[in-house]
Amino acid sequence: MESKTTAQRVLEMAGPVPITQNYMNHFLKEIGSGITSLKDDLKSCIRDVQKEMPEVGGRVDDLECTVDAQAEDQEMLWRLIVTLEEQQIELHLKQDNLENGSHQNNVRIRGVPRDEEGADIIAYTAGLLRAVGGDPCGHCCYLIWPIRWRWHQGAPVPHRTSWP
């Protein structure tokens, strides 16, 4: 089926009206006024779009500035993360080094019997250290106690009745 032109459709709607010069002039005027109103509508829409373009352009500029600032912040944060990771690795290595060094500086006292001087083994050991090495400032032995206590006690002394 062939598509009909606008003129053919108008003629079909008009029915058996004779086509005269006046009819054609009127028809062309209506088409011209339709085109003119369409052109005016398009101009109005274009004006509205042109009015909104600076605002849209400003928004795009603002978004570009925001994205650039966020990209810079992200780059700075990544550098900070890398720096902190490097510092964490350094601190972990220092901690391991200090732990290994502190293990080398530990003093081990062996052979302190369980039943000696009652139940206060800390006071007994502090007195033993003062008696053996002295305590020049009078309180140095007590400074080391809170750091770490690890007791390795020997087996209890057997009663004299079980000796061979």
Can you give a write-up of this model?
This protein has helices at residues 6-14, 21-104, 121-133, 140-143. With 164 residues, it is mainly α. The longest helix is centred in the middle third of the chain and has 84 residues, at 21-104. The protein is rod-shaped.
Mean pLDDT: 76
Q: What shape does the CA trace take? A: rod-shaped
Q: List the secondary-structure elements in sequence, H or E.
A: HHHH
How much helical structure, as a percent, in the residues? Answer: 55-70%
Main sheet attributes: strand count, strand direction, barrel closure? none
Radius of gyration: 50 Å
Query: How many beta-strand runs?
Result: 0
Extract low-pLDDT stretches. 143-153
Topology:
Blueprint: H1 6-14, H2 21-104, H3 121-133, H4 140-143
Question: What labels would you give this structure?
Answer:
mainly alpha
Give a short summary of the structure:
The protein has 164 residues and is mainly alpha-helical. 67% of the residues lie in helices and 0% in strands.
